[in-house]
Amino acid sequence: MRGGVVFDPMEWLLVRSYYMALLPQLNFRGDYLAAELAPSFCNYDGDLREFRWDVVNIVMPPAEVKPSDDGLLIAVEGYSVKLLRDWGLSPDIVVTDFDFSPEEVINCDCLVLGHAHGDNIAYYPKYASRVRRLLPTVQVWPRGCSLLVPGFTDGDRAVYLAYYMGAKEIRIYGFNPGKVVKRDDEIKRMKLEIARTLINRIMRKAVSNNAAMINLI
């Protein structure tokens, strides 16, 4: 992929306004610098349509149930890559901002959608430069080889991605805002509530558009 791709600009504007209003203490000004930086690490020349998106299994860090082995397998964060490995599975795609077990994605035989934003500029290059196949994602209008997907957390962004890629069935394993597996503080709890709201929004859109069937497992 050479230039930037934007999925649903109006949805992105709505979602961005929402999370910026709820978490003004985060470094959103740095998102623009991150969008400039990220494309230099892009080493993916393919097309996301090379994957089969009919059935998508999304595995989040609190997952306790082994996902089905049919369909596309997306891991959220490096921690979920380890979970899948322990179950004898390998993800096709990883959605991550490199802040939860990032070393797990370095040697992954998968496509990594590495998210760059204002709060991870300092360590993004350390991991992005070592990934075998990296397609950067960003939070503001892309400047080069990168993808702008509506969403805020890695989890809800993965669901948005599957929805926009035309999935007919999306199975979400382990989404549990009440179970914090990385850290437990006010910002993390707010992020999980934002993720809950956005995933519920995607589910409503899927129903109203007679599109994907989305199941929480």
UniProtKB/TrEMBL annotation:
Name the catalysed reactions: 6-hydroxymethyl-7,8-dihydropterin + ATP = (7,8-dihydropterin-6-yl)methyl diphosphate + AMP + H(+)
Highest taxon listed in the record's lineage? Archaea
Q: Write out the transmembrane intervals.
A: none
Q: Which GO terms describe its molecular function?
A: 2-amino-4-hydroxy-6-hydroxymethyldihydropteridine diphosphokinase activity; ATP binding; kinase activity; magnesium ion binding
* Keywords in alphabetical order: ATP-binding, Kinase, Magnesium, Nucleotide-binding, Transferase
User: According to the UniProt record, what class of enzyme is this?
Assistant: transferase
Protein EC? 2.7.6.3
What InterPro entries does the annotation carry? HMPDK_MptE
Needed cofactors: Mg(2+)
Q: Which HAMAP family does the UniProt entry name for this protein?
A: HMPDK_arch
PANTHER family assigned: 6-HYDROXYMETHYL-7,8-DIHYDROPTERIN PYROPHOSPHOKINASE (PTHR39648:SF1)
Regarding protein family, the annotation reads: Belongs to the archaeal 6-HMPDK family.
Stated role: Catalyzes the transfer of diphosphate from ATP to 6-hydroxymethyl-7,8-dihydropterin (6-HMD), leading to 6-hydroxymethyl-7,8-dihydropterin diphosphate (6-HMDP).
Specify the protein name. Answer: 6-hydroxymethyl-7,8-dihydropterin pyrophosphokinase
Q: Which species is this UniProt entry from? A: Vulcanisaeta distributa (strain DSM 14429 / JCM 11212 / NBRC 100878 / IC-017)
Output the lineage of the source organism: Archaea, Thermoproteota, Thermoprotei, Thermoproteales, Thermoproteaceae
